[in-house]
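Batch job 17 of 40 flagged for manual review because the log was empty.
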Amino acid sequence: MSVRCPVLLCREENAYGAELCAGCRTPLAGYARLHTYPAYLFNRGLAAARAGRLAAARDCFAAVVHWCPGDTEARNALALAGLRLGDRAEAHRQWTEVLDRRPGDPKAVRGLAQLAEPAEASRSSGLPDVSGPAPGTG
């Protein structure tokens, strides 16, 4: 893994963990932590969801989506957490956004199909799975 220098006139590729940019000597340690933070939040959200702490999971996924609006895996997870918390409107909004960004996304298609079912049927039939490893963010 490498970290690209955030200075626009430099953009040098540096080894992850480098303290200073090899090209312009800009401090990189803090930037590298910021670069990996969305994946950290996503994994915290997954852990919270698996532990049944759905509100905490939703908050982690929402932070990733705020930080990385193009991250469709985080949007899928946010939609599912919202649905499990009873916020069908937010789930619909997030899955619709996923399909706008990635047409045909199977998780979003299954999620919207789940929303189209009557509320009683969706509680008994199970929900789409969005678990998995941390996505590539961005």
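Reviewer: the log was empty due to a logging misconfiguration, but the result itself is present. The two ends are 15 Å apart (CA to CA). Unflagging and moving on to job 18.
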